[in-house]
């Protein structure tokens, strides 16, 4: 890691100056991008960059764990949830609290200044290294294992308890109980017959969607004899989403064709 | 080995960007990702601190932070999903049942 590329420039330094701007760019992308997917992907950039920084800081075990746990597990879980939950809902830009944005930015600058002064006040500029500690037990992983199963074994046990509680808790939270009994085929048939008895609704299958010269998509309504669109011919889900297609322009084509044919026939008869 | 101060400054910058995201963004998922970013910034500070002290305790702590972060993500995402199921929204402004 400490091979000299140029005089006074080490490999770790090159890594830092290449990777650090990338991680900051990724973090800015997270805060500034409107779409949640782009935000999640720019966090991936940041996390891989941090893994590279860990590797250059003589922490190969943490670098691997960072890639496996964060970019592998955590971000994939985020993307799965994004897939289920409102991938298209853009973030609202309305301020619900007056002046909150300005205050937040001022607060951020305050924290940054505070951290800078805290760091500046407590640091000594002596180059330090963890190589000796790594070599003590034969490697980084062995050294970490010695600490984890030695001095911090109780913390390790506690984190095991935390993980199992978190898994069970997530299962409980995401599980949804059925409020009413699921309707099977017999119940649905009984419902249909009841609707026929009380309201006189047709118990058979619903009408097809409309078939026109230009389109027979399921979003196009079929026409009733009086020329209005039959609401039953369109799936309720599509109607609720507003994904239906107005058949009027489609019938216009057929109408104009018929008119042209009629005109020719009229000329022939004349 | 280069001066570890740079790593701490990078960690501070990342932490502040994460904190700003938590305060500015309305989407619960993005706010949550910003919390993750703040945890990551702390991890970087821990690993750099391990360098400053010359021991592996900082790296061990960073490892435990990762464990806690993983548990936190699991529970937080479950909460977001269950809120989405009932309210059809992931905006933090819409979860206002406790508001007077």
What report would you give on this structure?
The complex is a heterodimer of chains A (270) and B (100). With 270 residues, chain A is mainly α. Chain A has 3 domains: 1-89, NADH-ubiquinone/plastoquinone oxidoreductase chain 6, subunit NuoJ (Four Helix Bundle (Hemerythrin (Met), subunit A), Up-down Bundle), CATH 1.20.120; 127-175, no CATH class; 207-269, no CATH class. Chain A has helices at 11-32, 36-56, 60-84, 100-122, 131-136, 140-148, 153-174, 185-199, 236-241, 248-269, and strands spanning 4-6, 9-10. Chain A has a two-stranded antiparallel ribbon with strand order 1-2. The longest helix of chain A has 25 residues, at 60-84. Chain B has a single domain (5-87), classed as Orthogonal Bundle (Helix Hairpins). Chain B has helices at residues 5-24, 28-53, 57-87. With 100 residues, chain B is mostly helical. Classes of the chains: A mainly alpha (270), B mainly alpha (100). Chains A and B meet through helix 1, helix 2, helix 3, helix 4 and helix 5 of A and helix 1, helix 2 and helix 3 of B.
